[in-house]
Amino acid sequence: MKTTDPVIHEFFNTLGLNQEETEVFLTLSKNGEMTVLQLSRLTDIPRTNLYRIIDRLKKNSLAA
Q1: Does residue 64 register a pLDDT over 80?
Q2: Is residue 39 a contact partner of residue 27, using CB atoms and an 8 Å limit?
Q3: What average pLDDT score do residues 4-26 get?
Q4: Which end of the chain has fewer surrounding CB within 10 Å, N or C?
Q5: What is the pLDDT of residue 24?
Q6: Is pLDDT of 60 > 90?
């Protein structure tokens, strides 16, 4: 799921999220819990990167 709406990305950018973090946040918000493999397939972000992204989202209280 690639979000192409620049307004959404600009909003999340003002919150301090980069494009990949925004994609992960929006994908999880839309689809609920999923494995890293499922998330990787939906976002086209490598699993190794997703672990770091998820840690940053958790650190900022944007993921559980």
Answers
A1: no
A2: yes
A3: 90
A4: C
A5: 95
A6: no
CB hemisphere CA count around 53 (13 angstroms): 22
CA angle, corner 34, sides to 10 and 46, nearest 5?
65
- The terminus-to-terminus CA distance of the chain in angstroms comes to 21
Annotate 9-58 with three-state secondary structure: HHHHHHCCCCHHHHHHHHHHHHHCCCCHHHHHHHHCCCHHHHHHHHHHHH
Return all residues near 49 (Cβ < 8 A) that are at least 6 apart: 20
**Calculated CA dihedral for residues 40, 43, 45, 48, nearest 10 degrees:** -30
Grouping H, G, I as helix, E, B as strand and the rest as coil, residue 59 is helix
